[in-house]
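Figure 2 data, in text form.
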Amino acid sequence: MIPANTKKGQLILGYFTPIDLIIFGVGLTVTLILVMVLPMQITWVAVLAITPGIVSALLVTPVAYYHNVRQLIIEIYQYFTRRNRFVWRGWCFLDESEHK
């Protein structure tokens, strides 16, 4: 039997993959640059400056049943863009030939 948390041991700090840390690092770096360059006296400019950091933090936030929000978005996108083929494997699967 495999323990439930074996995958967690392969992650950085138990939660992050290298691409997650890259996304978060780029978002924080862009936010720091914008905060240093843009005038923070105007409210909408301040909100615009911190948006990359907030978005990157939300993308790498852990979610139940998925690795993080980014993985959830990828799964939703793949569900709606791929051709789905559902094969019936229900309780009457073997009885199907009798009705034809």
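Caption note: The CA atoms of residues 89 and 95 lie 11 Å apart.
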